[in-house]
Amino acid sequence: MAEDSILRLDATAIDYLIIGLYFVFVLGIGYLAKRAVSNSLDFFLSGRSLPAWVTGLAFISANLGAIEIMGMSANGAQYGMPTVHYFWIGAIPAMLFLGVVMMPFYYGSKVRSVPEFMLRRFGRPAHLVNAISFALAQVLIAGVNLFLLATIVNVLLGWPIWVSVVAAAVIVLSYITLGGLSAAIYNEVLQFFVIVAALLPLTMVGLHKVGGWEGLVDKVTASPGGAEQLSAWPGTELSGFTSSPVLSVIGLVFGLGFVLSFGYWTTNFVEVQRAMASKNMSAARRTPIIGAFPKMFVPFIVIIPGMIAAVAVPELQQFKETGTGSVTYNDALLLLMRDLLPNGMLGLAITGLLASFMAGMAANLSSFNTVMTYDLIERYVIKDRDDDFYLRTGRWVTVGGTIVAIGTAAIAAGYSNLMDYLQQLFSFFNAPLFATFILGMFWKRMTPAAGWIGLVSGTATAVLVFVLAETGVLDLPGQGASFIGAGAAFVVDIVVSVVVSLVTRPKPDSELAGLVYSLTPKADRSEVAGEGDGGWYRKPTLLAGIALAMTIVLNIVFG
Which of 27, 179, 271, 441 has its CA 20 to 30 A from that of 450? Predict the structure, then answer.
């Protein structure tokens, strides 16, 4: 991280007051949510009782952690507009697919987690592989959010970074342990509005400083990377295929837009858990679709400030030109806040950053404790105990996960662009899982043995590509290694799964109803509208069509 003297924000009493009020609200929500927790289903899945607008905003806020806020602004500073692919290509189509096609299977089967769905479809070995890899991924990603949360406290208060890590962890731990998923979700709704209120003014002030949009275009065109940073396609610097625009487009559409994106949004329990907390099937299907609407506009308050920082902040300009200096791309937002915001506004902006990291970390912890308790401890370690035991276990697991995340924060500290680290993790864990899921959901012949063997083979392939890229055997700058790794993991998983399925015994059709598309009656795949769910604007397929059309327009306008 950059030196304190460069990044220190000149906060005053009014800024600290705003931050303090926010923490009072956060802990208050945790305390109030605790009163609604009477059993493990309340703690882990909010008793499946929440309305779609709440779960929809929580769905998007859970993803507005370090990955989005600092990682995407770092990408904006480094690559420019091609970063929008993480939203318009790499998120929204998959979110709509989750709502329209996959949520009926998740919600309709009444599973408590994504690994539990794997258990019913493929049996214990695939379930165990998925549960362990998911739990590992969550504590690694929680470490990223925790590290960045701590850097804000470090910059603001001057505390040593590891004191900041522990302090930040205790705050998040407090409200998750008190109120479980409900506390996380209601705080995520609050955090969504705080984040927008913090970043929108920063974007407007930043654009004013560089002379509006036209001024930003002129300055970016004259900076290293040039005019290519102003159009989303072909995104050669981002993909790593600098000599081939065609390969870059293929890499972005297949590697990011299909494998990494669908792998993340459709199988990642962090996100799916929010939809599972909905009050009925219609609300569960609408959850990711409602989230898609704010998601498509997030780039304008995250990526554009990064681009502004790269041309308006002298230290970052120097880093971009020479690759040396006391700051990195991860510092883009902090530097912009330091230079542009007056007191009061600075407190709100810092609160927005704290909110984003807490939302991200809380999402990781609330899904980690569910999978650890339901899928690993109850299933394999301590079986057949009463519900109170698993409720208490869930709270202790949250404490343990937080302690491990403090350790994994050290790994995150070693990356100058955290998106490189995150995309690498997604290529390991999410890409092969998506291949297994999609094949198993649409091909009834896929066998339990293929479920776990394909998953392990895909993950091993992604790790191999990572090792080859790190050792210089493959020359893949940017995030090319994670795109190639994800694509390779997906293909290998599919091929291995097909081959293994052809030589092993499948489950009988009677055991696959509700788990395989062709064996699930249409009535079970469509929502039963609950009371107050009858309006046209509550129809998942229509809402998804509107969101997709808007996304295509945005791609054309900024392409």
Answer: 271
Q: What is the 3-state secondary structure (H, E, C) of 81-100?
A: HHHHHHHHCCCHHHHHHHHH
**AA identity, residue 337:** M
Report the distance separating Cα 440 and Cα 7, nearest Å: 50
Neighbours of 64 (CB within 10 A): 27
In this structure, are residues 22 and 354 in contact, taking their beta carbons and an 8 Å threshold? yes
pLDDT at 419 over 70: no
Which residues is 278 bridged to in the sheet?
A: 50
Alpha carbon distance 288, 274 (integer Å): 9
Tell whether the model's pLDDT for residue 458 goes beyond 60: yes
Say what the pLDDT of residue 2 is.
43
544: its two tokens:
């998804």
Calpha distance 123→142 (Å, rounded):
28
350 close to 25: Cβ distance less than 8 angstroms: no
Could you report the per-residue pLDDT of 348-397, keeping only the tens digit for each?
Answer: 888 887 777 777 777 888 888 888 888 899 888 888 888 888 888 888 98
Is the Cα dihedral 22, 25, 29, 35 positive or negative?
A: positive
